[in-house]
Each structure stands twice: as structure tokens, then as C-alpha cells.
Amino acid sequence: MCYAPVMRVWSLTAPGLEKLSLKEHTEPTPGPGEVLVRIKAASLNYRDLMIATGRYSRGAKYPLVPLSDGAGEIAAVGSGVTMWRAGDRVVTSFFSGWVDGPQTPEKASTALGGAVDGVLADAVVLPARGVVRTPEHMSDAEAATLPCAALTAWHALFEGVDPLRPGQTVLLEGTGGVSIFALQLAKLAGARVLITSSQDDKLRRGRELGADETINYKTEPEWQDRVREKTDGRGVDHVLEVGGKDTLGRALASLSFGGQLHLIGGVSGFSTELPLGPMAQTNARVRRIYVGSVSMFESMNRALSLHRVRPVIDRGFRFDEVCAALEYLQSASHFGKVVLTS
Fold first, then answer.
1. How big is the chain by its Cα radius of gyration, in Å?
2. Domain end among 243, 265, 288
3. CA 20 to 30 Å from 260, out of 45, 78, 79, 83?
4. Segments forming the whole domain that contains residue 272
């Protein structure tokens, strides 16, 4: 008698960490154009916490297999797949259906761990073009940090019509995954980087990673004034805006004339009035960044591999400790990324 392999899957039946449970399912089989990926590591994003607690502005379908970011190896390929073979190390793309070109509502509807089931399972089936090759110098845990946070930072800095140039100045809010990846990438590009945090120890670690200027926003609540002081009154060329309603006005007031604000997240909430005064005064350009495509991911990985960039991992948890990992993320104690390993 033959038995189908059984795997572990985390399921979120409704908003609330108490609604997250570990189940056993039969391992899926890849269909035409698909691959089966054995997940070795996954990483958490603030989006995952918002989805788990029912605060995600885009909504999510329930029941849901959470998390968008995973890394592992190809276990099997479906018919017609020639670009992968069993044993290849791969990383999941945040959007399994956004390969290249501009984003569309249809491509956005393929976001893992929100619109469709994610990677918090022993194995997942994905489109063959919905995964990318793992950088050879990275472990699975390191590679699992790339799909959302790293690619968001890359998209903001390098994939627009006016990308970051050497000598420009970048302002980063906080020391979470997006900001720390942006710090590493901006320094590779020859930029000057300012970073904020409420904790002096995190600011010290930011300086160790290359930050040129640091600002404690608790002791300096009008931190936009300090930004202008540290840039001789000019302001910064790029702001990666992850804070939301509590930071947007100050971020706009920190921009140089013609500077770019890359609107990414809303840690403090999304409901706010758009400060038109600072926008008009600085001729600011505002871009919405919603992660990126597979082709962007591949471009980023070439740069990471060339410079052998290693992601900053704050802390690791086991696969069965996902609730503890989400609670740790909620505490905002982390510097860089929080990962899960099988």
C-alpha cells in the first residue's frame, strides 16, 4: 500500500494569534508549470503581524496559510518545467504571479500569505516563475529574509525612473527589515544615510553598519529639524516611509527640493491627512512601493551576490514557535529580521 507524504501546515482561520493552529495535510503535487518547494526557513514581516491580528489594510482571505517569505529547495517539478530540477535552492517571490513589467491588480492578487496561501508549511506548490535562485553565499535562513523587506528597499532605491545616485542622501525610519536592508544597499551605491530609532543601542548598531548620521526620535521628536540641520538645510533626496500617520508629515518636511518619498508601510497606522504644504514647498515626488517583481528580485540578487551582502538577522525561532516569533516582532525589540527554521 502506498502512503502520501504528510506535512505540517500553519493555518490562520480568522484574525487573532489564538486562531493560528498547526495542522497536518497531505503533501501537494505540482501541476503543469509548477514546482514543489520544501521550505527550510521563513522570515517575518510587519505585514504578517497585521494580517494575523486583522489590521491589514488590503485585507486577507481566511483561512490562510501565513507568511510570504520562504527559502528551501525544489522537491519536484510539474510537466513542462525545464528551468528547475529537484535539489535546486530557491527563494519564494512575494508575488507568485508578478514576473516583470508594471504591477497590475491581477499581479497584486498573487501576494503570498495574504491574497493567497503563503509559505508557513513544510512544502508549498508555486508557479515555476514564482521562485528565484538562492544566492550561493547565503544560508536558507538568510535567503528567507529577501522576498519582502530586501526587495522593497531595492525597488524604492533602484527601480524608479530616477534611482538613487552616488552622493545622494537617504533617510531611513527605524531599524526594521526594510530600513536595515536599505542601509546596506544605499551604502553600496555610495549614498549618505541617516537613520532614526527610539533606542541608542540600535542607533549604535546602525552606525556599525555604515549609517553616517543617527537621530533618536524619542529625545528629538521634531526629528525633521535635525535632518535639515545634518544636511546643511538642504534636506534628503530619498525617504523610505514606513511609519505611516505618525511620520509622514515629518518625512515630507525632511525632503530636499524635488526629493522622493517612497511610501512603503504604516507601522503607526494608515489613516492620515496628506500634508500638502510640505509637498508643495519641496516639489516632492511620492511613490507607492509594494514590494517588487520576480525580475527585480533577480536583479537585486545579482547585486547581493556580487558584493556578498549578508542579511542582518536579529533572532531565530523554530517552525513550531511562530506565535512567539510574532509576539517578539510586535514588541519592536528587533534589529533587522526575525526568522523561522524547520
1. 20
2. 288
3. 45
4. 160-288
Q: In the 8-state DSSP scheme, what is residue 132? A: E
How far, in Å, CA of 290 to CA of 151, rounded? 9
**Which residues, other chains included, contact 149 with Cβ-Cβ below 8 Å and sequence gap of 6+?**
43, 45, 69, 176, 177, 178, 180, 181, 337
Q: Cβ atoms within 10 A of the Cβ of 253, count? A: 22
1 belongs to a structural domain: no
Q: Which residues lie across from 240 on neighbouring strands?
A: 172, 262
- Alpha-carbon distance of 16 to 103, in angstroms, equals 30
251 located within any domain: yes
Give the end of a domain, one of 244, 271, 288: 288
Report, as ranges of residue numbers, the positions in the chain whose pLDDT lies below 50.
1, 268-269
SS3 18: helix
Task: Examine the domain organization and report whether 23 and 125 are in the same domain.
Answer: yes
Alpha-carbon separation of residue 25 from 58, 87, 262, 265 (angstroms): 28, 22, 40, 34
Instruction: Give tens-digit pLDDT for 213-257.
Output: 999 999 999 999 999 999 999 999 999 999 777 889 999 999 999
